[in-house]
Amino acid sequence: MRLEDSPVPFRDGSYDIPASCYTSLDFAAREWEFMWPHVWLLAAHVSDLTAPGDHVASAMGRATILVTRDRAGDIRAFHNICRHRGLLLVPHGSG
After folding, report:
1. 39: which residues sit within 8 A by CB, 6+ positions away?
2. Where does the pLDDT of residue 14 fall: very low under 50, low under 70, confident under 90, or very high at 90 and above?
3. CA 45/CA 43 separation, integer angstroms
4. Can you tell me the distance from the alpha carbon of 21 to that of 30, in angstroms, rounded to the nearest whole number?
5. pLDDT tens, residue by residue, 43-86
6. pLDDT of 16-43, one tens digit each?
7. How many structural domains does the chain have?
8. Chain centroid to CA 75: how far?
9. CATH classification of the domain holding 68
10. Does residue 65 contact residue 78 with C-beta atoms inside 8 Å?
11. What's the domain range around 56?
């Protein structure tokens, strides 16, 4: 995508970010549509998951993510939603 085709509201070539970008719900919605789904986001640090069963649950945009360390010591990530009822599996936070 070329800069002039960018969906952001400032197309004048300036490098200054207008203050409205920090307060605009429309701008935030555009970021979640065009930027955040296409980049790596930090859900948890490995030091937060030291023992099997440790978990971190957090919201990322419209999704809620559950990151956990399994019995084999591997770190796994899942959608934090029950497929049957659509409810959170664990509350946001760590444990």
Report:
1. none
2. low
3. 7
4. 10
5. 899 999 999 999 999 988 888 999 999 999 999 999 999 888 88
6. 677 787 888 888 888 888 888 888 888 8
7. 1
8. 17
9. 2.102.10.10
10. yes
11. 46-94
CA distances in angstroms from 28 to 35, 53, 61, 71, 90, listed in the order given: 10, 34, 10, 38, 26
Is 62 within the bounds of a domain? Answer: yes
Q: Long-range pairs for 76-80 at CB < 8 Å and ≥24 separation? A: 77/43
pLDDT for the residue 1: 42
Strand intervals (E) in the chain: 55-60, 63-69, 75-79, 93-94
Whether this prediction's pTM lies above 0.85 is answered by: no
Backbone angles phi, psi at 67, to 5 degrees: -115, 130
Distance of CA 54 to the CA centre of its chain: 20
